[in-house]
């Protein structure tokens, strides 16, 4: 049996997955994002994102191990590549020897299923043009991009990720990745789809961190129009659910709480929200003492839960857990 599009057991496969998705406490919902670069001993601050660094594998493993010992067990990792590692097809993203895949293998060896790893499978960090898909002229071609995303996803699955995270917004990618995972026997590897992802102005600090800004144009031919109403959001989320995603995401968070509420009440899969880099930057610029930041962060995290989020991806996760705010 290797052709199931929907495998509800994936979200129940490990205790870490069950706690993240079904645990009612805010602390259980949190996912901490990280950025991994090639090299060793690298621990580089990111402008606008205090407390979030680009780290080489050795440093990142220490960081995540420390987070884990604080009780933060769900982590999302983004690969960051230098210009010399990029090409126009994003070849390195599917390379089993890259730091992202290697960090996943090492962390899974160290912590097994007690750690929950999510890995970003987009093309924007590995292509020299910085677009989330492959180009023909100035156009992002859908189906060819999906084929490449399948290759990247399989590489993450081989490394042992819990959830491949599809953040590209190409049509049909969930189905193609699901079918490929099935075919290769990865029937406990999950897919978290960035189902409802807007062409937002709140991703600026992330694009600096991941050096993934498009070299020309923007992302509006694939990410959702910020003016669109609920119909498009529901269509995107339902399509991904039918194609077999295990978690559907709404992104960004705060400007789209209403969409989050609508989506979470209308689909039958867990819903994640991404409290993105621009939202984090605003809070860090505003609330610079810890007492005030605690109140602000709790208010924001509480709003996500009230709007129906089962999972919250947030750069505030570490501080919230370390300081016992949640
Ligand atoms: C990659 C991706 C982006 C983010 C997550 N995955 C940037 C983008 O779409 O340009 C943004 C996350 C953040 O701002 O924190 N496609």
SSE arrangement:
Blueprint: H1 15-22, H2 26-29, E1 30-37, E2 43-45, E3 53-56, H3 57-70, E4 74-79, H4 99-111, E5 116-120, E6 134-136, E7 139-141, H5 142-159, E8 163-166, H6 173-183, E9 190-197, H7 204-209, H8 230-243, E10 247-251, H9 257-266, E11 271-275, H10 277-286, H11 290-306, E12 311-314, H12 317-322
Helix pairs in contact: 3-4, 4-5, 5-6, 8-9
Question: What does this entry show, briefly?
Answer:
The protein is of the alpha/beta class. Helices cover 40% and strands 18% of the residues.
Describe the structure.
The protein is of the alpha/beta class. It has a single domain (8-322), classed as TIM Barrel, CATH 3.20.20. The chain has helices spanning 15-22, 26-29, 57-70, 99-111, 142-159, 173-183, 204-209, 230-243, 257-266, 277-286, 290-306, 317-322, and strands at 30-37, 43-45, 53-56, 74-79, 116-120, 134-136, 139-141, 163-166, 190-197, 247-251, 271-275, 311-314. It has an eight-stranded parallel barrel, surrounded by nine helices. Helix 3 packs parallel to helix 4 (99-111), helix 5 (142-159) packs across helix 6 and helix 8 (230-243) packs across helix 9 (257-266). The longest helix has 18 residues, at 142-159. The protein is globular. The structure holds ligand PBG. Ligand PBG is lined by residues 120, 122, 124, 132, 167, 203, 206-207, 219, 276-277.
